[in-house]
Amino acid sequence: MGAGLVSDVARFERVVRLAAMRFATLSAMDSIETLAENVSNCRACPRLVAWREQVAEEKRAAFRDEEYWGRGVPGFGDPDARVVVVGLAPAAHGANRTGRMFTGDRSGDFLYAALYRTGFANQPESVGPGDGLELDDVWITSPVKCAPPANKPTPAERDECAGFLDRELSLLSNARVFVPLGQFGYQATCRFLGVRPRPKFAHGVEVDLGDVGGHRRSIVASFHVSQQNTFTKRLTEPMFDAVLERARELAG
Known about the structure:
The chain is of the alpha/beta class. It has one domain (28-251): Uracil-DNA Glycosylase, subunit E (3-Layer(aba) Sandwich), CATH 3.40.470.10. Helices cover 46% and strands 11% of the residues. It contains 8 helices and 6 strands; from the N terminus they run H-H-E-E-H-H-E-H-E-H-E-E-H-H. The radius of gyration is 20 Å and the shape is globular.
């Protein structure tokens, strides 16, 4: 076979591989988009539906001129991400208002500033959809998709949402490292990944999940980015940055 023909064949094979990769990515996005629609339209938990809609109707004074989302909040980020951040649930006047995970409250301010410092985000602020924020190699989600009263979902509400989380994490086929925020996110992540026995939760604790599909998977836990933790310095910027940097290192 002549050198020119070999070159043409190699070029064709590369084009085919790239096209297949793009098709796979688009298919995943379509499925994620369908899941997002399912989440936003879900009314399975009467208590959560009543609360999220009550908050959206009454509003906080600072946001009285804004239209609240008031629905289930889908995950957000890069569908090809190798790092997945798992929180707890949308905040009543944060994601329940803006419709985007960890957006519009102090917890989100802390999270996105850290993602920017560690190279996962193109800007440190997350105000709302249309603000130009883009995430690279990270996806953000939560086990419970609706804002719960007092930020405390019941076990039944957690279990009702488990199917959404399982489907979402399964769609993130490139996921290598999971960063659960707090005990609630840690337990949900371990349940999905089949971690038994589950090591005791602690900030910075790592769980090596072994080889999955030719790649190693890991968990790197962190305290939640709640105001209670950040204002009291239980969780500081250097502590959280270190977790995100470690997650990137483990993701390869």
